[in-house]
Design a protein that fits this description.
InterPro entries: ABC3_permease_C (IPR003838), MacB_PCD (IPR025857), Macrolide_Exporter_MacB (IPR050250). It is built from 13 helices and 14 strands. The chain has 405 residues and is α+β, with helices and mostly antiparallel strands. It has 2 domains: 184 residues, no CATH class; 192 residues, no CATH class. A 6-stranded mixed barrel has the order 3-4-11-6-8-7. Helix 2 crosses helix 11 and helix 2 runs antiparallel to helix 12.
Length: 405
């Protein structure tokens, strides 16, 4: 008997038991769909993180307060960054281009009866350039606003849409902690950055934020949430990081553990990449377990099929079918079940990714490598778990098989 005849007989037997065949494939379908969707969403997450960090530029650094290794600092050290630290960095570090200190907190922003929660940030005119925030209408904060502690605000696109709908926000008065601020600018849509919606932001002068909203919170000066720094170029980033760390250690009298952390955009990208890769690998491993379970299901059903078809096997052997003919037929049945389940699972996984792409900012990546790997694993599972039932069927004694009926 040739391979084509064995294939026809295998497909005919599977078609005759549609419900059982479909239920057997279910585990393979779920496993493949999980693998494809997990890999695609993981790669989409990494791609989104790359895109977000690319908007910052490769020569951006962030100085954040607190010990970055989660260890306690000594009690006599300052616990936060202050405005004087940012000024010292701007004046004493030769490898940097611009410094933009920031104080931020969540606040309720209101206009008439409209209200929204947004990230309120007090910052300086350099913030727009360092963080690549573009103005859609109006203007950004300037030095005069800073020196006079003016109550002016630049709002994000979503804040503008929520509070003003389709009206122009320029010149209108919004309220923050019962203080009126005049809107002088609206930002271009920016999107999310590490889970924070940058379009839900309100920017005001740093001095106004420090003296009228936050108040004095540190004995060392105006406490900062973060300092954004732009190095002169990509080659200057490492030198800038080294110089900033040394300067702050001198200013804070640090001899042991730092009470601050300096991160570059590349370091943040590397951290995000490592986290997403680890999570994707873990989820793929979990999804792979369902493929193994599906393979066990294929083996169980094939064993049941062997016991039910002993008369058929005995009759075929009596008519001259060899052990290899029986072995090949049952192996083909197992592989067809697994490959069919794999194809359906891949289509289901791609559909899941498309749905995720529609309802989230992610753009899942359909990887040809992942599809080929998934199909290969499916075929391997069918072949591997189909060997035992096929060998059992091939070794049946035709006389015993015919008598068993």
């Amino acid at each position: 008997m040739n391979f084509l005849e064995s294939f026809k007989m295998a497909t005919a037997m599977l078609a005759a038991n549609k419900l059982r065949t479909s239920l057997t494939m279910l585990g393979i379908v779920i496993g493949n769909a999980s693998v494809i969707a997990t890999i695609g969403i993981g790669q989409g997450t990494q791609k989104l993180a790359n895109q977000q960090l690319e908007t910052l530029g490769p020569n951006i650094l962030f100085v954040m307060p607190g010990n970055q290794q989660g260890r306690r600092t000594t009690l006599n050290l300052p616990k936060t960054l202050v405005l004087e630290d940012a000024k010292a960095i701007a004046s004493q570090v030769p490898s940097i281009k611009q410094v933009a200190p920031e104080i931020n907190q969540r606040q309720l922003i209101s206009y008439g009866n409209q209200k929204t929660n947004a990230t309120l940030s007090g910052t300086t005119p350099e913030f727009s350039s360092v963080r690549n925030f573009q103005i859609a209408t109006g203007r950004f904060i300037n030095e005069i606003d800073l020196k006079r502690n003016k109550r002016v605000a630049v709002i994000g696109s979503e804040v503008s849409n929520t509070l003003f709908k389709r009206r122009s926000a320029i010149g209108e008065q919004i309220r923050i902690k019962n203080i009126g601020f005049q809107v002088i600018g609206v930002l271009e849509p920016k999107g999310s950055f590490f889970g924070t919606n940058q379009d839900e932001t309100v920017l005001i002068p740093l001095t106004t934020m420090a003296y009228q909203i936050v108040g004095r919170t540190s004995p060392y000066g105006v406490q900062l949430s973060v300092i954004h720094i732009e190095a002169k170029d990509t080659d200057s980033v490492r030198a800038a990081k080294f110089q900033i760390e040394n300067l702050l250690r001198l200013r804070h009298n640090i001899t042991n553990e730092d009470d601050f952390g300096v991160q570059t955009s590349k370091q943040m990208l590397s951290i995000v990449g490592n986290v997403t890769s680890a999570l994707t690998l873990m989820l793929v491993a979990i999804a792979g377990i369902s493929l193994i379970v599906g393979g066990i299901g294929v083996m169980n059903i094939m064993l049941v099929s062997v016991s039910e078809r002993t008369q058929e096997i005995g009759l075929r052997k009596a008519l001259g079918a060899t052990q290899s003919d029986i072995l090949i037929q049952f192996l083909i049945e197992a592989v067809i079940i697994s490959l069919s389940g794999g194809i359906i699972g891949i289509l289901s996984g791609v559909s899941i990714m498309a749905l995720v792409g529609l309802i989230t900012p992610l753009s899942p990546v359909v990887s040809s490598g992942a599809i080929l790997l998934s199909l290969g694993i499916s075929g391997g599972v069918g072949l591997g778990f189909g060997v035992l039932p096929a060998r059992r069927a091939a070794k049946l004694d035709p006389i015993v098989a015919l008598r068993s009926t």
